[in-house]
Design brief:
67% of the residues lie in helices and 0% in strands. The chain is mostly helical. The longest helix has 19 residues.
């Protein structure tokens, strides 16, 4: 399913002209994804995953109201699916103020929803999709640089 999400993101969701012209037609997109060789279950799973993410990010953010010294402890099930480099990447983004606590936890939720082991590349894609869905172009570009820059991300 992850490959379907990346394909959708690259080919549909980042094409501003396509988004400006009309709302994406799920039926047409499903046919194109099927023609591209993706399995029906993966396509429907990707649609559900992406729609759930949009729904989560459109809900008013909960204020965690914690002390600045609070630490997020990742559960054993989270560390089983999301590797140490990926968790470090999220913590880096949070410390760089690219994402906040709520966004971090929503990104972790979307990673867990994939129910497969994830590396740093997958976590960067999930983060880019999350930031893009919120219209956060500057932050999206920062993570995109981290994904495609062979030297890794840098603060500017």
């Amino acid at each position: 399913m992850f490959e379907v999400l990346v394909f959708m993101f690259k080919n549909y969701f980042t094409n501003q002209d396509m988004l400006d012209d009309a709302t994406l037609d799920d039926v047409a997109m499903e046919q194109e994804l099927s023609a591209a060789g993706f399995e029906q279950d993966d396509i429907l799973g990707a649609f559900g995953w992406f729609n759930e993410m949009k729904s989560m990010f459109s809900t008013p953010a909960f204020d965690y109201s914690h002390e600045k010294t609070a630490i997020r402890v990742f559960t054993p099930s989270e560390t089983k699916i999301i590797n140490t480099d990926s968790l470090g990447f999220l913590i880096f983004l949070q410390q760089a103020k690219v994402i906040n606590d709520v966004e971090r936890d929503l990104i972790v939720d979307r990673a867990m929803a994939l129910n497969t082991s994830l590396g740093i590349e997958e976590m960067r894609w999930i983060t880019m999709m999350a930031l893009w869905s919120q219209g956060r172009d500057k932050d999206y570009s920062f993570v995109e640089d981290a994904l495609f820059n062979p030297r890794g991300s840098t603060l500017q």
